[in-house]
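Summary for the lay section of the report: proteins are chains of building blocks that fold into shapes. Here we show the chain for TNF superfamily member 11 and then a coded description of the shape we predicted for it.
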Amino acid sequence: MAAAHGEYRGYLRTTVDVEAGHHRLQPAAGSEHSHRPLLFGTLVVMGLLQVASSVAILMHLTGYLQQVDLTTAPRQPIEQVQTEPVLNALKATKKNRRFKNQKENLPSAHLPIKVHQQLAKPGEPSAVPIDWDEVHGYRHRMDYQKGKLLVVKSGFYYVYAKTCFRYYEYRGDGDQGGGASMDVSNTQLIQYVYHERIKQNSKADLLMKTGSTMRWDNSSYNMYCAQQGRGLWLQQGDALYVTVSNAWMLDPDGVGTYFGAIKLGN
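The coded shape description reads as follows.
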């Protein structure tokens, strides 16, 4: 009976101890509840950091960060400062190349006087047209026929002409540069440039005129040059030519007597 009662009390103690042990575990459960918000906060912070890192990488890959740095920087990047002269030089080279190509395609002509031509008899003052030398001259996209420059492309042209006259007399051999016993004390040396219009039935209009009345000495070397130029609009098929008075006194040197035109624009 006593043994049974002792076992019963042992059972009671065991039950109490179990309950006591259960109560001792309660603080552990409360500690678990206190650490749960801290763990949740840590996870949130880690998630935000991961999102921020992802956004930063994405912005860097898209170039946004580089753009912001360039716009907010107080000074230009070194790469830009170093490459600007190179870019400017390349642009200038391309521009000069385009201008050179355009210049090479412009119609133009420059013709020296043709030597060994009998323009007029000595002492004949009337104006006669000059024949020009195609072989030693230059023509590009312009035609030439019997002393006339022919326009192939319509446009605005600059036309120029220069003629040189000379006279001198040799002593002792009876020869003189302009013929025998010519009176050159009062000689008119005039240069005319004519424009022949294709739309007016080849009517020639006087475009330019210049010259002088020279009082030369028969016993000395005399020389006079007349030159002129102007711009005007020319149509396809128009012609240009030069006449001079007292053409028998023309200097046959192509450096001094020449005729030409160049197109300046449309």
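Put simply, here is one thing we learned. The chain has three helices and eleven strands.
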